[in-house]
Design brief:
By secondary structure, the protein is of the alpha+beta class. The protein contains 13 helices and 16 strands.
């Protein structure tokens, strides 16, 4: 039980100067005072979100901090020390015993408060201001139904967007892996038949050893990455095809394509032809076909490895985007958050979109709620891509340090916004999209999240250069 010091009955003159009671008559203010008390409360929790809303509190001196429950944590949303600031039974006018506190209120230091019974306040409002109370009740019920209907819808929209991007990106490497696996199965079956074409086993041991060594070296080279351009690869394939044709190798151009992809050049062909296992004119063709099968097998294994690695990377990026395996708050690299968000939205980055990353790599790690900031970047990037539309355009992500703050800019080369639109762009339910294509809540949600991080979010726009700028404190 928290110790409360009652400092006396409510004083009409002390309450008269508070803005919240402005406009009340002396009789009305006296009626409120009769149903409340002035008390000094110690620092600590004043009321808990979800508990029955028993009292309405008005601050006389001290400081109140409000927080809202999100998942398993309380997120600070408001702090005030101005006399007249209030909290507690916001919806006392409903006169509903099941009404609960909408926020958790905490006193950051010992504070003097005017404590008023919720039923007393509700009765006062309904009798003294009946029309205003009817409007408040209507607004309260409307807001409740709005949250009940739009809340799951908005969460579903975000889930659908993330799932669409993730499945699109996972489909490509998964299809590549399946294709490579089928090719590998066919290739292994073919190698079983080609083995019979190899030089006679009665060859000297050094000749057979040279074939084994060539196979190992070809597999090693084919398994490495090669930085050949498409033009260089085409030139190499042509040179290899001509060489193999001159030496009477069947299916020369099919083998040439494989060797070029594996990075084996003419010097390698000369090395193969000079090996002891190719000591007779008839032995070169079977050896080349065997080594081509070896190279193709390695290329298929590399494709499968790359595809599965890409899938694993996408899953990691999805986990980073949703922060499913992280603590609610963390100290993270903001560039990692931006990149994971880009990965989730990559299905929208068509060939007409140029992405420019202008990152300040010297920026320190940022203390934040990573999953929430990923929502901010998602809304801002989607907004930029919507502005660019189907026309060629550039999406620029820029980070820089501004004194003790970290600044993130999401820029697009769309047509820009008029002054009227710019003034309302963060208003809830405001959208320039056709009816049914947008809720107008994305930027409002982004602004609220940034505000919870003690940051600021604003927009600057001229034709061809629109910027949404987020400024966040670097310190905790």
């Amino acid at each position: 039980m928290r110790r409360v010091t009652v400092t006396g009955s409510s004083d009409v003159s002390e309450l008269r100067d508070l803005f919240i009671f402005e406009g009340l008559t002396d009789e009305q203010l006296a009626a409120l005072c009769a149903g409340g008390r002035i008390a000094t409360f110690p620092a600590g929790e004043l009321c808990r979100e979800g508990e029955p809303a028993a009292f309405f509190y008005v601050l006389l001196d001290g400081e109140i901090s409000l927080s809202k429950r999100s998942g398993a944590r309380d997120i600070p949303i408001w702090r005030a020390c101005a006399p007249g600031s209030y909290c507690g039974a916001w919806s006392a006018f409903l006169l509903d015993e099941t009404t609960t506190y909408e926020n958790t209120a905490t006193l950051t230091k010992p504070s003097r408060l005017f404590e008023l019974d919720a039923t007393t306040l509700g009765t006062f409002l309904t009798t003294q201001f009946p029309m205003a109370t009817h409007l408040l009740v209507g607004h309260s019920h409307g807001r409740y139904h709005q949250r009940r209907i739009l809340g799951p819808h908005d969460r579903l929209v975000q889930l659908v967007q993330m799932t669409a991007g993730l499945t699109h990106e996972l489909n490509n490497p998964a299809a590549a892996g399946m294709r490579a696996a089928r090719g590998l199965r066919t290739q292994i079956a073919g190698m079983r038949h080609r083995r019979a074409e190899l030089p006679d086993r009665s060859l000297p041991p050094e000749a057979m050893q040279s074939l084994v060594e060539l196979q190992d070296r070809v597999a090693e080279v084919a398994g490495k990455a090669h930085d050949l351009t498409s033009v260089q690869k085409a030139d190499l394939e042509e040179a290899l095809g001509e060489w193999l044709e001159r030496h009477g190798v069947a299916d020369a151009w099919a083998h040439a394509a494989i060797f070029a992809e594996a990075g084996l050049d003419i010097d390698w062909m000369e090395r193969i032809s000079a090996a002891p296992c190719c000591s007779t004119p008839s032995s070169l063709g079977p050896v080349v076909r065997w080594l081509a099968s070896t190279a193709e097998t390695e290329l298929l294994l590399t494709e499968i490895t790359d595809a599965t690695t890409r899938i694993s990377t996408l899953v990691d990026q999805a986990k980073q985007f949703t922060q499913l395996d992280r603590a609610p708050s963390d100290v993270v690299d903001v560039h990692g958050l931006l990149e994971s968000t880009l990965a989730m939205r990559s299905h929208r980055l068509g060939p007409h979109i140029t992405v420019v990353r202008d990152y300040d790599e010297s920026l320190p790690a940022l203390p934040c709620y990573p999953a929430e900031l990923n929502q901010v970047w998602t809304h801002l990037i989607d907004n930029a891509l919507d502005a660019i539309g189907a026309s060629p355009g550039t999406l620029t992500l820029r980070t820089l340090r501004d004194l003790d703050r970290l600044r993130v800019e999401v820029c697009d080369t769309g047509p820009g916004m008029s002054d009227d639109v710019l003034a309302r762009v963060f208003d809830p339910f405001f959208t320039t999209k056709p009816f049914g294509e947008g809720t107008g809540l994305g930027l409002d949600v982004a602004a609220r999240i940034v505000d919870r991080h003690d940051g600021s979010l604003w927009a600057e726009s001229t034709p061809g250069d629109t910027r949404f700028i987020t400024s966040l404190p670097i310190g905790p």
